[in-house]
Write a structure and sequence with these properties.
Elements lengths: L3 E6 L5 H10 L4 E7 L3 H11 L3 E3 L2 H5 L6 E4 L6 H10 L3 E4 L7 H14 L3 E3 L7 H11 L6 E9 L20 H17 L2 E9 L4 E3 L9 E3 L5 E8 L4 E7 L8 E7 L3 E4 L9 E5 L4 E5 L12 H12 L7 H20 L3 E2 L21
Parallel strand pairs: 1-2, 1-4, 2-3, 4-5, 5-6, 7-12
Antiparallel strand pairs: 7-13, 8-11, 8-17, 9-10, 11-12, 13-14, 14-15, 15-16
Helix pairs in contact: 4-5, 5-9, 6-7, 7-9
């Protein structure tokens, strides 16, 4: 099979692990072009990773007939603008999370992709790693009995103390739910299935943030999005879940994700990672037991979803990280704010069916 050619738009902080993994880990994709508004970033990536082409504008990159998939690594509020133009140019698109900054934008992207017969999907792809895939197998094989509920928590005090450019986390398309919610919700729907309705309460404890990290130390950020979000999830299966994300609270850890069943409880690894640990509690065991990982990709494998989309493009199967998943997650995230503003239960219109589980391949970096 021919190698699928990738064009990267956006060479910011997240691009480093993508550059490393695309060029060194995954054997069926090839990075052939980069583009960034700050040309020096693209030049550095081109030199360090021997990327053949550098484009001044995304439109020049989209016009390259060699490129099969556009990898959109821009800021969240820019995702729609980049992805829609790539689709219009006839390119398949894999975007960093979220799919778009609003549900309306997400639906426009999906409609465009469908009309043009193009693949559209994206991050997070951590659910394809060894940790979440092992948890899925444990649940599907009955280790916790019938799933009853779930609880997810992402608690921290924001990014202004360490991130070099934290402002966008508090602007349109940002906030703890839009930033970190995709990891937790993607894991949850892959473990428990689709969501039928939600309830949410949202607020912002601080209207301004002072940056203490360089190079913007001392600058003030006006907060435009909710930074304290609590949501209730009603799953199609009958299970009930809760999710809490915040940038307002001091806490010593960030991740907690638990699945409750009729016969036991499963402690799921941080969904922002690809590996473990996984802990299973069953009454007969007298305590939690750490479970072995049963799948490949326990290390930081960002780009795994991109490689999966490329394989889907080669073989004609559905990509595991398609818009059917990213749109469902986007709708759930937006519904919490809508519920909070209207005081009502929100029905989720998009339908979601779990994609096929991962299959182990003795050739690391080659997907099924």
């Amino acid at each position: 099979m021919k190698t699928i050619k990738i064009g990267m738009v956006g060479v910011g902080a997240i691009s480093g692990i993508y550059l490393e993994n695309i060029t060194k880990r995954f054997g069926e994709i090839e990075l052939v072009a980069v583009c960034d508004l700050i040309r020096e970033r693209a030049e550095k990536a081109q030199e360090e990773y021997a990327v053949p082409k550098l484009y001044d504008t995304m439109y020049e990159l989209f016009a390259d007939p060699e490129i099969d998939i556009v990898l959109n690594l821009t800021r969240p509020y820019e995702h729609f603008g980049v992805s829609i133009e790539a689709l219009k140019a006839g390119k398949h698109v894999y975007s960093e999370k979220p799919l778009a900054a609003t549900l309306e934008e997400g639906r426009i992207l999906v409609k465009t992709a469908q009309e043009k017969g193009l693949m559209l999907g994206g991050a997070p792809d951590t659910f394809l790693g060894a940790g979440i895939q092992t948890c899925r197998k444990l649940i599907d094989d009955g280790f916790i009995g019938d799933p009853i509920g779930a609880a997810a928590f992402m608690i921290c005090h924001g990014h202004e103390s360490w991130h070099p450019d934290p402002e966008f986390y508090y602007k349109h398309g940002g906030g703890p739910m839009m930033d970190m919610g995709p990891y937790y919700l993607t894991a949850l729907i892959n473990l428990l299935g689709g969501v039928s309705s939600t309830i949410g309460i949202t607020k912002s404890a601080f209207r301004q943030r002072t940056i203490t990290s360089e190079p913007h130390r001392g600058e003030i950020i006006e907060v435009e999005v909710p930074t304290y979000i609590t949501g209730i999830l009603n799953f199609d299966s009958g299970a009930t879940g809760t999710i809490f994300t915040t940038f307002d609270v001091h806490y010593d850890t960030q991740a907690r994700l638990e699945i409750y069943g009729s016969k036991g409880t499963l402690i799921v690894p941080d969904p922002n990672t690809f590996g473990g640990p996984i802990r299973l509690l069953r009454p007969e065991d007298g305590g939690y037991k750490e479970m072995p990982l049963c799948f490949d990709y326990p290390e930081n494998s960002r780009g795994l979803g991109l490689a999966d989309m490329a394989k889907a493009l080669q073989t004609g199967r559905d990509p595991r990280e398609s818009w059917k998943q990213t749109l469902h997650v986007l709708e759930i995230m937006e519904s919490f704010r809508t519920s909070s503003e209207t005081g009502r239960v929100i029905s989720i219109e998009s339908c979601y069916t779990r994609s096929a589980p991962m299959q182990n391949n003795p050739l690391h970096g080659i997907l099924d």
